[in-house]
Specification:
Radius of gyration: 23 Å
Order of helices and strands: HHHHH
Low-confidence stretches: none
Distance between the termini: 31 Å
Strand content: under 5%
Number of strands: 0
CATH architecture of the largest domain: Up-down Bundle
Largest sheet: none
Number of domains: 2
Shape: elongated
Number of helices: 5
CATH topology of the largest domain: de novo design (two linked rop proteins)
Mean pLDDT: 86
Structural class: mainly alpha
Helix content: 55-70%
């Protein structure tokens, strides 16, 4: 998995920025009948997706990042809701295809954010603010040892009968 040092390099931030660009173009072309308050809220919700990704990334702890990713995901949901409701208006009937494409981009943001959040929830890293070079190195070494032990146990399990005392199932802490 790649490591990103800048939020601008994150694929999900790039998708969110693209969503903003496309929604902004849509707002510019939309008929004047679309209320200013609707335009304003749609623009704010769309901009909130990329901004919350950026703010969470810059915060420095996994818990803060997760909180902002969920806010960004909520904003992507708001964008989808607004676009779906807007698409029901007769004066936007000529924009149905474009609205559908925008909804697809917002859904892509939501999926990416969900995947990232799920992976962070399963991580035992507390975040950059909590890491120094030694703790990063210790974490990598521990993960490497755990992966090696798992591979060893799998290989051992393939070659030993299940009733053998050295079979992983029969050792303390083994799979039962």
């Amino acid at each position: 998995m790649p490591t990103y040092n800048r939020f601008e390099d994150l694929p999900v931030w790039q998708t969110a920025a693209d969503l903003y660009d496309r929604v902004d173009d849509f707002i510019d072309r939309a008929p004047p009948r679309m209320r200013a308050s609707f335009r304003d809220q749609l623009e704010r919700a769309t901009f909130s997706v990329s901004n919350n990704i950026a703010e969470g990334f810059e915060r420095g702890t996994t818990n803060e990042l997760l909180a902002f990713l969920y806010i960004a995901r909520g904003s992507a949901g708001e964008v989808r809701s607004m676009l779906r409701v807007g698409s029901r208006r007769p004066y936007l009937s000529d924009f149905k295809s474009e609205i559908s494409d925008l909804i697809g981009v917002a859904e892509s943001c939501s999926r990416q954010l969900r995947g990232w959040a799920d992976s962070l929830q399963n991580s035992d890293i507390a975040g950059q603010r909590h890491l120094n070079e030694k703790s990063r190195s210790d974490y990598q070494k521990r993960k490497s040892r755990e992966a090696g032990a798992a591979e060893f146990n799998q290989a051992l399990a393939k070659h030993l009968p299940q009733d053998h005392p050295m079979h992983p199932k029969n050792r303390p802490g083994g799979t039962r």
